[in-house]
Amino acid sequence: METIRNIYCIGRNYTAHAKELDNPIPDAPFIFLKPSHSAIFTSENRTISLPGQDGVVDYEEELVVQLKKDYHPNLPLESFLGEIALGIDFTLREVQTETKKKGLPWLSSKGFRHSAVLSKSISFTSEENF
Question: In Å, how far from its chain's centre is CA 45?
């Protein structure tokens, strides 16, 4: 993957996980952001530091997609998808619960350093090869 400028995340797209956390099921998933400093690559062979002093750190495995150009719904996937990787999305769950109660963004619970771990990526060639 190239240098990361933006990390767009899709929230509440897994019904079972939303139910597990007692969250309402939205009609459509929603987007939240992580800052670029939250990304760390497994290939860097560095220690991942997590803010355990701020409560329980939960994790979810994610499919990570890097776009090579702006998305447009009328274009085939091959025209804008660049690379695909696996990721881990770390969350400070108690912090997130409190921010949700207050109607605040999730940045403090999901945007900390090393909260987005990324594996080695592979090039996306076509939907058939995916």
Answer: 20
Residue 55 half-sphere exposure toward CB, CA atoms < 13 A: 15
Side chain identity at residue 103, one-letter code = G
Where residue 89 falls among pLDDT bands split at 50, 70, 90?
A: very high
CA–CA distance, 88 with 30 (Å, rounded to integer) = 18
Whether the Cβ atoms of residue 51 and residue 95 lie closer than 8 Å to each other: no
Contacts of 84 (CB under 8 A, 6+ apart): 63, 64, 65, 66, 121, 122, 124, 130
Q: What is the SS3 assignment for 37?
A: helix
* Pairing mode of beta strands 116-118, 81-92: antiparallel
CA 128 from centre of chain: 24
Could you tell me which residues are beta bridge partners of residue 7? 34
Task: For 20-75, write each residue's pLDDT tens digit.
Answer: 777 777 787 788 899 999 999 998 888 888 997 888 999 999 999 888 888 888 88
- Would the pTM of this model clear 0.85, i.e. be above it? no
